Amino acid sequence: xxxxxxxxxxxxxxxxxxxxxxxxxxxxxxxxxxxxxxxxxxxxxxxxxxxxxxxxxxxxxxxxxxxxxxxxxxxxxxxxxxxxxxxxxxxxxxxxxxxxxxxxxxxxxxxxxxxxxxxxxxxxxxxxxxxxxxxxxxxxxxxxxxxxxxxxxxxxxxxxxxxxxxxxxxxxxxxxxxxxxxxxxxxxxxxxxxxxxxxxxxxxxxxxxxxxxxxxxxxxxxxxxxxxxxxxxxxxxxxxxxxxxxxxxxxxxxxxxxxxxxxxxxxxxxxxxxxxxxxxxxxxxxxxxxxxxxxxxxxxxxxxxxxxxxxxxxxxxxxxxxxxxxxxxxxxxxxxxxxxxxxxxxxxxxxxxxxxxxxxxxxxxxxxxxxxxxxxxxxxxxxxxxxxxxxxxxxxxxxxxxxxxxxxxxxxxxxxxxxxxxxxxxxxxxxxxxxxxxxxxxxxxxxxxxxxxxxxxxxxxxxxxxxxxxxxxxxxxxxxxxxxxxxxxxxxxxxxxxxxxxxxxxxxxxxxxxxxxxxxxxxxxxxxxxxxxxxxxxxxxxxxxxxxxxxxxxxxxxxxxxxxxxxxxxxxxxxxxxxxxxxxxxxxxxxxxxxxxxxxxxxxxxxxxxxxxxxxxxxxxxxxxx
Length: 626
Prior knowledge:
Number of strands: 9
CATH class of the largest domain: Alpha Beta
CATH topology of the largest domain: Rossmann fold
Oligomer: single chain
Radius of gyration: 38 Å
Helix content: 55-70%
Largest sheet: 5 strands, parallel
Strand content: 5-15%
Mean pLDDT: 79
C-alpha cells in the first residue's frame, strides 16, 4: 500500500528510467486512480516529453484485435512529425481502405473503432510493427466486454513489455470478480510493480481546494471510510450550489450545510455504507424522533419488527456518531434534500433556515464576548469599561445561561460598586423567571434553571420557589385550558406526565377536550398518534364511583362523582338504597373523543373516510395500537 505522494514519486521514477516495465495501479472503485495518473502527467511534463503515449479506455472493447488497434491509433495521434518513424502517415492506406468500406473518414480512435471488425488484422499488422518504446496506459478494465478475457489483456501487456520494450500502466479496481481472481493469480508473472492507492485524502484536498471546510471533509473521510473521489466531487458541487444563494452565510451555517450534504449524499449515492435508504434515514433521524414515527411507517403492530428497527437505528447512529454525534434531520436538511431530489432550491425554506442560523451565529458571538470578559476577570486584569461590558453581555445571556452564572454576574457588578447595574440585571432576570414559570410548567423544576446544583452565592433560588408556588395556586383557582393543552402535548412529545397538573387534567370537560384534541402539533400526520397518547395518559387511569337511579328503566348519573385511583379497592361502600357502578375515566374520555371525531366529519366531510376507517380498525379506539 502507498499514499499519494509515494505513488507519484514511484511512478515518475519508473517513467524517467525509460526501461521496459509493467505496472498495475489498483484500489477501490472511484478512489481517484485515473485522476492521480492524469495529475502526474500534467505536473511532470518534462518526464513525459517526447514519449510516444497511448491512453486507452477498454470500455466496450470486445476483442484483443480491437484493443491493439486502439493502442496503435492513440500512439499515432500522440507523436510529432519530427519522429522519423511516424513522419509518414503509415495508417493512411489503411484508413483510406476502411473509409471506402464504412462510407466515412477515419481520423480518431472512435472512428477507427467503427471499422475494427472490418480491418483489425490490417491495422494490427501495419502499426504494431512500428510500436516500440511506448508508454501505454490501459484504463477501465472492469468496463470491457466479457468477450475480451483478462488472460488476453495480460498476455498483450507481457508482449508489449518484453518484445516491444514498452512501459505499461494498467489501472484497475479491486472489486471481486472472475477477472480479479485471474489477475491476482498471475500478477506476479506479468507486473514489475503492483501499486495500491488506498489513501486519496490529498487528492480530495487538491480537488476541493477549500481551506475553510476541508477539516469537515477530512473528518468524514477518516471516520466514515469513504474514499470515492467522485463522491466528494458531487458533494462539493451541491455545497457550492447552496452557498452561492447568499453571501451572508456564516461559517457555522456553511459547516452545518456541508455535514448534512455529506450524510444525505452518502445514503443517497452509496447506501451500502450505512445499509439504509433515504426513507429509513428520515424514519430514524427526523427531529420528532423514531418512536413517534414507527406507527406511521410500519403498518402493523409487530413489536418484534419495531424492536429490529430500533436496533438497526442504534447501529446506524453509532456509525454516524463518529462523524456527527446526535445527528438529526433538521435545519438545512430540507434545503439539501430539495436540491438533491428536485435539482432546485426552495427560496422560502432557504431564507427561513438562513434567518434562524443568523440567530445562532449571534449567540456564538455573544458567547465569545462573554469568554473574553471572564478571562479578564480571572486574570485580575479587567479591561476598560469592564463593568459596562459585563452588564451588556449579561443581558444577552438571560435565558441562555443558568441562574448560577447570572447570580455570579450580579454579584460581580455589586462588589465592583455598580449597585444600579446589579439591581437592574437582577430585576430583568426575575422578570424572565416569572414569565417562563407562567408560560410552561417545564420551568417549575429547579433542574431547568440549575445544571450543577445551587451555589452558596446564588440569589435567585428562593425567588424561583416562591414564583412556582404562586403559579400553582393560581392554576388551582382557575382552570387554565392553555396550560392543560400544553401538558398533553408535552406528554405526547416526551412522555412527561405533568403530575403537578393532574387535578386540572383529570377534571377536563368535553368542551375543553375539543381544544386539547385539535391543538396544533409539530407533525400533523401524527394526529392519530397524538390522540392515542391522550387516551393513554396516566391521569385517566381512574375509576369514578357513579351513583345512579332508575327511572322508567333509564340510568341517570349523579353529577357529583368521586375520583378513586384505579388500584384503590378498600372501603368503597355502596348504598343498597342508592345503587352505584364503577366507570373508568378513560371510557368517558373515549366516548367524548368519538363524539368529537364525528363532529369533525360534519365540519369537514372529506375527513370521513380517514376517521371512520380508523374507528373501525381500532374498534372505536378500544385497541390503541391500531
